[in-house]
Amino acid sequence: MSESVPAAVGAPPTNGSERASDAFVAYVLDLCKVKKTQSDLRTGLGLPVERCNYLHRYLVPRLPARMHPDARRAHYAVAALIAARPRAAREADAAGSVQPWPEWYQRANLGAALAQAVNKQIIKPGSAEGDLHLMARQSSGALHPRLPALTRHLLTEGVAVDWAVLLEDLAWWNRDRDRIATRWLEAYFRTTAPEPEQDPAARPSHLTEEN
C-alpha cells in the first residue's frame, strides 16, 4: 500500500477557509518571532531532514508521526525558508493585515512569482524560463538546494512567495512533478503575457453594434 501525504498538506474543508498548509505556515511565522528559534530553523536551509538537527524540537510535535518522507522534507524546507527571509520581508509580514483566504487556484505558485520578478525587471526572462525548465526536470533532491537563493532573491526585491502553495507543491513533487511543473510554467507565461488588444472587427457579429 502506498503512503499518502497526510492532512498536514491536505485539501481545504471548505472554499476560502484555512488549509492545513496555511496553518503550518502561520505556526512557523509565529515561531520566528523569537530570534533564537528563527536562527535554529534557518540552519535547515537546503538540507535533508536527517541533517536538520535543530529543527526537530519545533517541528516534530507539529507533524504526524507517520508522514511521507517527501512531505516531511517539504515542511522542514519551508520552515527553514521562512526563517531565512530577509529583514524587509519579515517586516512586511509583521505589518500585514489579516486577509480572507483566497480561492486556492487564484494563489500564486513559484512560476507566477518568477513572472512577477520578470515584469518588475528583477530577473531576465531567459533566466526565469531557464530556471523553470531546469527545475521541471529535477527531482526534489536537486530542487530543494536551489530554493534558498531563489526565494531570497525574490523576497529581497519585493516579490512575495506563497509559502503554503510552495509547501504543497514540494510535498507532491516527486510523485506529481509533471503536473506541478506544468502549473508553474502556465502561471509564468500567463502572468508575463501582455493583455491582448481585441480588434473590434474580430468580435463575433452578435457583439458588434449595428449601423
Mean pLDDT, to the nearest integer, reads 86
What is the rounded Rg?
A: 19 Å
Shape: globular
- Say how many strands there are: 0
Structural class: mainly alpha
Strand percent estimate: under 5%
Helix content: 40-55%
**What is the H/E order?**
HHHHHHHHHH
Quickly count the helices.
Answer: 10
End-to-end separation in angstroms reads 68 Å
**Largest sheet, if any?**
none
Give unreliable regions as ranges.
1-8, 10-15, 206-211
Describe it for me?
It contains ten helices and no strands. The chain is mainly alpha-helical and 211 residues long. α1 crosses α4, α1 packs across α10 and α4 crosses α10. The protein is globular. The protein starts with 19 loop residues before the first helix and ends in a 19-residue tail after the last helix.
Can you give keywords for this protein?
54% helix, globular, 211 residues, disordered N terminus, mainly alpha
Q: What order do the helices and strands come in, and which of them pair?
A:
Blueprint: H1 20-31, H2 35-42, H3 56-59, H4 69-83, H5 87-95, H6 110-119, H7 125-136, H8 140-143, H9 147-156, H10 163-192
